[in-house]
Amino acid sequence: MKVFHAMALIAVLAAGPVYADCTYPAAPGKLPDGATATLDEMLAGQKIVKEYDTAIKAYVDCIDKELDQKIAAAGDKLKPEQKADMQKVEAQKHNAAIDQLQGVADRFNEQVKVFKTRTDKKG
User: Fold this and answer.
1) Is the model's pLDDT at 9 over the cut of 90?
2) H-state helical runs in the chain
3) Closest CA to 118 of 41, 29, 54
């Protein structure tokens, strides 16, 4: 009987949840170099970082909804330790995405500082 419950739970979790297409966004390939970039290039870089921020937020929302949907679909068939494991995996994905976003933002902000230092000297 336990095998049947485990198989039923696996089937429920694998049954194509509504939010199954949570696509992890690719980080921007190249950010402008503050030492040589023009103002337009820096503004374009800012736009890219903002778009990436929006994409990461959408991804995080998607995986949050996906987890909620899986837990709801499993209902009382889900043991507390299984739920905790699912939440742990989702938290790891969430945190990794936010960490990557923060890394991109930090790199861009460093280039903004370089750009400002360079352009302030000209003025």
Assistant:
1) no
2) 2-14, 39-74, 80-122
3) 41
The better pLDDT of the pair 17, 113 is held by 113
- How large is the C-alpha radius of gyration of the chain? 21
Kindly give, in sequence order, each residue whose CB lies less than 8 Å from that of residue 58, ignoring residues fewer than 6 positions away.
Answer: 25
> In this model, does residue 82 exceed pLDDT 60?
yes
CA separation, residue 114 to residues 34, 53, 56, 58, 91 (Å) = 5, 22, 26, 30, 34
Residues in contact with 105: Cβ distance below 8 Å, sequence separation at least 6, in sequence order: 49, 53
Give me the pLDDT at residue 20, please.
58
Q: Where are the domains of the chain?
A: 2-122
